[in-house]
Amino acid sequence: MKILAITEQREGKWNKTSFETLAAAQQIAKDVGGTLAALVIGKSVAGLADELAGKSISEVLLVEHELLGAYTPDGYSLALKQAIAQTTPDLVVLPHTYEVRDFAPKLATSLAKGMIGDCIGYRHENGRLIFVRQMFQGKTAADVSFVGAGPWFATFQAGAFRADLVAAHPSGKAAVRKIDVELKPEQIRTKPGELFREAKQAVDLTQAPIIVAVGRGIKAPENIPLAEKLAKAIGGEIAASRPICDEGWLPMERQIGSSGQTVAPKLYLALGISGAIQHVVGMKGSRTIVAINKDQNAPIFEVADYGIVADIFEIIPALTEELEKSKAS
Amino acid sequence: MDADVLIVGAGPAGLACALHLSQLIRKHNQAGGKPELSTENIYVLEKGREIGAHQLSGAIMDPVAMRELVPDFEKAPPFDTPVSSDAFYFFTGKRAWKSPVTPPPFHNHGNYIVSLNKLVKWMGGLVEKEGVNLFTQFAGANLIYENGGIAGVITEDKGVDKNGKPKDNYTPGYELRAKVTVLAEGPRGSLTKQLVIKYKLDGINPQTYGIGIKELWEVPAGRIEPGWVAHSLGWPLPLDIYGGGWIYGLKDNRVSLGMVSALEYRDPLFDPHMAFQQYKTHPFVRRILEGGKMVRYGAKTVPYGGWYSRPQSSVSGGLIIGDSGSLLNSQRLKGIHTAIKSGMLAAETIFDALRAGDTSAEKLSAYPKKVESSWIKKELWAVRNFHQGFQHGFFRGMFSTAMQQISGGRGFVDPARAKPGYEEYRKLNRGPELVDQSGRFKGDGTLTFDRLTDVFHSGTRHEEDQPCHLVVLEPDICGNRCVREYGNPCQYFCPAAVYEMVKEKNVARLKINASNCVHCKTCDIADPYQIINWIPPEGGGGPNYEGM
What we know:
Mean pLDDT of chain A: 92
Largest sheet of chain A: 9 strands, mixed
Distance between the termini of chain A: 80 Å
CATH topology of the largest domain in chain B: FAD/NAD(P)-binding domain
Helix content of chain A: 25-40%
Order of helices and strands of chain A: EEEHEHEHEHEEEEEEHEHEHEHEH
Oligomer: heterodimer
């Protein structure tokens, strides 16, 4: 059996799960008595190919092209299809990364072959390879196998195999074979944009010493900046009760309460928050709670250290102004 | 993934079906029966966080069915306590009149007060031991229709955000195909509703419902005997509302109390939650609760329709059992025993079908026939016209009941017709202003509570960033028509403060606090325009009725 492991790199840096998949591929090759080739794809990645050559494999396939500099599903699937045609593997294994999830189904479909995705292991039984994948959020494991002729595709979940168990080449280095592929710019329909970095870290309200929280009393999204101004003046984070975040007036990560975050700042300023128990459980541990609410019977006053029965729209601007004045002086 | 049997809903009916089928398969395999069957090919889907999480009932259980299912169950009792005494009261605002005789339907000697949550959890353990696959936190979103029947379900998509976009943890629903799919979803099941509409499976009468609201209390020692049972009619419910209260003494100074109101009242601004809160202020009830602590809250609908509201309960590849199949006895307000029995009868039907390799409509029609020849029919037949009598008020209901008692259930007209409860609302014909909510019941915080405080005690939790699972088909109706015609009853009938009318820039619209939802299904039932469609939220969401 000829096995091909496809690795992943971006801007010349390995995706570490590539080596987990390589470890899996080495084990499979050993179990079934097959040969293993590893493939690296991109633009100017000969250095990476050289690194791969030090591992226990029969050869390294180097797929380089001008148009493979940035990842595109069209570029990758077209290039890999040609590489597979030239090397005729029986089994192609890949790490189950975001990129692979994107192009591998397309690649397998273009060859009219099956793919088993997100496997956590495999077994070799009676001459047959069986792949194991999770179902029902890990509650059960399903055994899945291929029918028909290869090449078959399988992807492995991150962490399913250990990268440190990749065996080194027993006698120096494997050969690097360059695979020529043809790609035309018009075949690539996606235009890669700026690389998307990790989403901005969600605010960690639990670390904020001062929190200014708004509730239904704020009435409309247009009024949120009023509270934000106060938060800025007092040096605190803005937060809210559930209805405000539910309406989308503030992002969900700023929600305090049983279905949001639980906080215990030094100062908690509750503006127009009635104090339903769902909210109170998320903030009652605050050192000092100041509540401003029109309704003197609002339950928030039961947990507040200081309470002002007043219209928040009178208090907020006045308070902001005073704070700014004292800062200026 | 293909199963032999897929059961939707791990309540008493669904689990009884799984357990009894496992028992039959075990015996069959031990006797060397062919073809060999496996309990591993029985799948149960449950939308709750764990088995029992969404189970809510009073509850008094007639043990007749459980003795058939688990003959020695009384040795390791999953129930709370046997009923030691029962009494029946009529409440006026200040007094409680004890009926000199307890009406026969409320005789509870020999029955058990149970926590349905604990009972079902215990059943779940037995089912799991048999090797059945129980999948909690998975709901059935859609049915797979095939051959004029059903061939399985598609579970709900997970990891979808508010706007319907996939999130990082997006997992599309699984297509679970099965030879037989059993709908055991309880009252107003969302798949059952789809199936009944799709194949026009309605019974003679439309289904009618009540809403039950319950609190579990811990009271000072000596207030109430374990096993003490009281039911009441009257105050605070007006005489045109069919319903009443219950108080059950449990072990360890716990009290189960609640109130059921039929969802077929005239006043669209009637608030069943507030009625229950008022009920607790009656001197008779207050005496028991005072100084105690409310520990848990819940609400759930009850199907009242009975025998004539049963949908056709078998199709090719599918069965409907338990409350979904309208098998509750509305006179005794008991449905656990009939649910269990129907699950067992379904199991016997499926067992025969699997052995024969035939799950056609004809083969599975053995199930309704088995129900017909079982004691379920006998019990429900005697009260087949009971609830309909009460659609015209309390006194006519009592009179009809008396007539039915002496005529073996026949009464004046047989079958007595019923109409859907939402048709009963009186039109208010008011202006376009929203009904002022500032005077809504707030409770005193010790004996009585507002809805949000109660919801907190239901342990309800949902993933917040998901599409709203309460689908309003024509949202314009709420702010334009409903406000004038009915004053937006959703703000009143919902026991979890999910629905709220808000006015912004002079436009009235419905705001849905879906994460408060306790999965009682009242909105789907009681909305006057029938435009609210309750669909399951992401699995695992909903109440946590631990100990209820």
